[in-house]
Amino acid sequence: MPDSPIGKEENKHGKARVRGIELAYEDVGAGPQVVLLHGYPFNRTMWREQVAQLSQNHRVMAPDLRGHGESEVAPGPATMEDMARDIAGLMDLRRIPRVTIVGLSMGGYVALEFCRLFPARVRALVLADTRAQGDTEEGKQNRAAQAEKALAEGMEGIAYAMLPKLLAPETVAKRPEIVRRVRDMMVQTKPEGAVAALQGMAQRRDQRPMLSGISAPTLIIVGSEDTLTPHEDSELMHREIGGSSLKIIEGAAHVSNIERSEEFNDALLNFLHDNGA
Ligand code: MLT
Q1: Banded model confidence at residue 10, pLDDT cuts 50, 70, 90
Q2: Positive or negative torsion for Cα 4, 267, 53, 261
Q3: Which of 143, 228, 255 to mutate to test the pocket of ligand 1 (most atoms within 8 A of CB)?
Q4: Cβ(195) to ligand 1 under 6 A?
């Protein structure tokens, strides 16, 4: 398969049947190929600013991961391996052999799993506000409680509880449009999709042992005020992944790509440029 950009005429927002479920995606622009993997419980619209900027000289694919956005929910846990294999299947369908893979938080868990399963398909890697460790026992219990709450009460309560952890206090105080946007994404997630992702994340493997084997150029980004995946988690990945760079975005918490989209985009574009990706 040729590793070449496609022309603008092939740009597409669409749905595709991959591994038995329907996945929604955006596939826009032309140039070196980048895939953006969103966090939990969000959807591909979280990448709006990145798609707008990157697609000026890249081909950008942003899928809704299974159970999120407009993609179908499959029965049982949505494991990180399922999601990584979904992405590989979607790349096959869209004729994308190799990519720069960018994942934020749960998207980062999927990106690491993708690296483990398909290292030859990773041209470069960006891990944002994420971690390599698996869940602690306490973390697993919290996910089980959150799953029960999502099924019993819907996503409103989850969104309410998560917002102050996702956003920096300054964002909450001064950027109501961001608070609304992040809340709306969470509330739009189907409770069954959220539950499947919570179960999948609880089961995910500890990826620390494979970090030193990652040979793709890697950029690690974290908000200085991220408390869900604090900078220590990013520093660990930075130490283990040879030649990686670490960018700390001041004033952002967990959704650094939305809270500080300009700084995030600058870091991403400089990295892509420096690595010919
Ligand atoms: C995310 O933003 O994807 C989640 O906070 C990840 C997690 O719950 O571990």
Answers
A1: low
A2: positive
A3: 228
A4: no
Q: Which helix (H) or strand (E) holds 22?
A: strand 21-28
State the virtual CA torsion across 67, 88, 114, 220 in degrees, nearest 10. Answer: -80
Is the confidence at residue 6, as pLDDT, over 80?
A: no
Tell me if 109 CB under 6 Å of ligand 1.
no
Tens digits of residue pLDDT in 64-97: 999 999 999 999 999 999 999 999 999 999 999 9
Ligand 1 proximity of 201 Cβ (cutoff 6 Å): yes
pLDDT of residue 184 exceeding 80:
yes
Per-residue pLDDT, averaged over 167-172, amounts to 96
Structure tokens at 73: 């929910």
Cis ω for the linkage preceding 41 (within 30 of 0): yes
The CA 44 to ligand 1 mean position distance, Å, reads 15
Q: How far is CA 250 from CA 59, 97, 152, 256, in A?
A: 29, 35, 37, 9
